[in-house]
Amino acid sequence: MFKVNRAQHVLAVNDFDSAVKYFTEMLGFTLDRTIGGWSFLHLDQFYLMVGDCQGEVPARETNNHALFAYVNCEGIDELFDQYRERGVQFNQTIADKPWGLREFGVETPEGHRIMFGQEIQA
User: Fold this and answer.
1) pTM for the full model?
2) Intervals of the chain under pLDDT 50
């Protein structure tokens, strides 16, 4: 029987050290380990691999392809407040959407975008 144990997103970054620092200090990810140009991080059950890929096209130049993850979560207002206090760059402020989700979006210094959403309880 097929089963997914965990999904990880993989990001290519030009400034490896700065990217890892941003994910840990600004977005609250935990650094699990760094091995051979790769850092493995997580934010609760959201897993991420950041690769040192100097010279690649920056995410911000890929337009809508820079949106790489949608995170369904709980406690979205608290997370939004934490990020705002840390000075995280938002590409979408928190708002209730007509499709039944409360959402906001963040953008990293290299242009990678993440959306966070929580189901609106009736």
Assistant:
1) 0.92
2) none
